[in-house]
Amino acid sequence: MPDKEFFTEYGEASQYKIQEVIGKGSYGIVASAIDTHTGEMVAIKKINDVFEHVSDAMRILREIKLLRLLRHPDIVEIKHIMLPPCRREFKDIYVVFELMESDLHEVIKANDDLSPGHHKFFLYQLLRALKYIHSANVFHRDLKPKNILANSDCKLKICDFGLARAQFNEGATPIFWTDYVATRWYRAPELCGSFFSKVST
Which residues pair with 153 in a beta bridge? Predict the structure, then answer.
């Protein structure tokens, strides 16, 4: 994909050379790129028409804020947020992430010979990440294989914090964050109805 088709007149676009599209969704598109300043491979997430729906804009803002604060080896890292040329008039956002090769869904689908050692290492990384996230009173709420990025060296990183929430009240309070939480088949039992609880994971 030519750079001019991916970027919409962003002044910082010259820093990155687009390689290929690696993902598409309702939010927009993700492409791999080379940072010409460092030579590093990165992933750039282009979010289209970010202000078209208020709920989507809030979700994107929430994800960016949380990922800027949550710094951990098992959580995907935001490297840079490209500033628009005009802060009063822009509709697309470009977020630069570290580049990962695949996701756990694809790894499971493509490999029927994963050993118990693989399973243990995957679980260790996920539990370590969740302990860190929960210690910050943040709850991901949409943890599933597609939201866990993976490399060929078995390194995993949790991503997509769009449905995540932070809770700062230590008391037992009713949780009414959203009507929809988590993909059905990966939903925690306590999220299958309306409950009063201290936390919703």
Answer: none
